[in-house]
Design goal:
With 296 residues, the protein is an alpha+beta fold. The chain is built from nine helices and eight strands. The strands form two sheets. Strands 4-3-2-1-5 form a five-stranded antiparallel sheet.
């Protein structure tokens, strides 16, 4: 027979119904409090003008912490023999095993917390990462959701976002765009530059500060190239509209001022084999030149 001490060690301690009820009430109260904390923090961080991703994620994390504390307190009340230190020890072992098994998931989670807390970009910003260019729809704990400019939904893991080079196009209010215009070598360069600047400065999509610039940048094969630099709104559509208006206005102004914009001249040099083939076209089958018959 098993010794009495051993039998007693396997027996569960008595549980009072009142303790179970009190523990359940604590857990339910903690759940209600966690929901209230989430709502309050979400409104508070929105009032502080934090991004929707920041408000949602950190409010949810705070609510989960409150609920975890309430569950721990409820279990301690319902089962007095269960010590919180034992629960924490078991959670520690489980967290180590989960960390080894889900390294990629935890990496994305920690990267998501870092991105959301630092906010290098927000929902609504336009970014570029590698071949992906578009507008940020959402930043959650696992991935960043981007809607590309051609309407596709792209999910980028947060670990890639935090370790890659991200270009935030809307990080500032204005961006600079350049358009190259070629004029003839015999054109009056100062007149061409002043004509281009006058055409650009009056456009509504082009910012006045900083002012547009017209710089001579290259001597081409048949043209002298003038680079027009101008600033516009940072969003993709704003830059494209500004570029479209600038090109149209400059072309019209140059045509009215009779400033020539010649096409590029390309010189083709024949290879020796091609030259020999052309020379052979005028020869007969016997290698001699064909002679035209004299008129009768």
């Amino acid at each position: 027979m098993r010794p009495p001490a051993a039998v007693d060690s396997w027996e569960l301690p008595p549980v009072e119904p009142g303790q179970l009820g009190a523990g359940a009430l604590v857990i339910v109260g903690g759940w209600v409090l966690s929901r209230l904390v989430r709502a309050v923090l979400r409104r508070y961080w929105t009032w502080r003008r934090r991004s929707p991703s920041f408000s949602s994620v950190f409010a949810s994390m705070t609510g989960w912490v409150v609920l975890a504390l309430a569950v721990g307190a409820g279990l301690t009340i319902a089962f007095p023999s269960v010590r919180p230190i034992n629960i924490l020890g078991g959670l520690g072992v489980a967290s180590i095993a989960a960390g080894i098994a889900f390294q990629a998931v935890l990496g994305n989670l920690f990267a998501g917390v870092l991105l959301i807390s630092r906010e290098p970009f927000r929902s609504g910003d336009q970014i570029a990462l590698g071949d992906v260019r578009g507008t940020v729809d959402e930043i959650n704990l696992r991935e960043t959701v981007v809607r590309t400019f051609d309407g596709r939904r792209v999910l980028i893991p947060n670990s890639v976002m935090s370790s890659g080079v991200v270009t935030v196009q809307t990080g500032y209010e204005k961006v600079r765009t350049s358009v190259v215009v070629g004029v003839a070598y015999d054109a009056d360069l100062e007149r061409a530059r002043s004509t281009a600047l006058t055409a650009v400065e009056g456009l509504p999509s082009v910012a006045r500060d900083p002012a547009p610039q017209a710089l001579i940048t290259e001597l081409g094969s048949s043209t002298i190239n003038i680079e027009l630099r101008f600033w516009s709104g940072a969003r993709q559509l704003e830059t494209l509209e500004a570029q479209d208006q600038v090109i149209g206005a400059v072309v019209r102004a140059f045509n009215e001022a009779e400033i020539a914009m010649p096409a590029d001249i390309r010189v083709l040099e024949a290879s020796p084999s091609f030259t020999a083939a052309l020379a052979g076209l005028g020869r007969g089958d016997d290698g001699g030149r064909r002679e035209r018959s004299a008129p009768s």
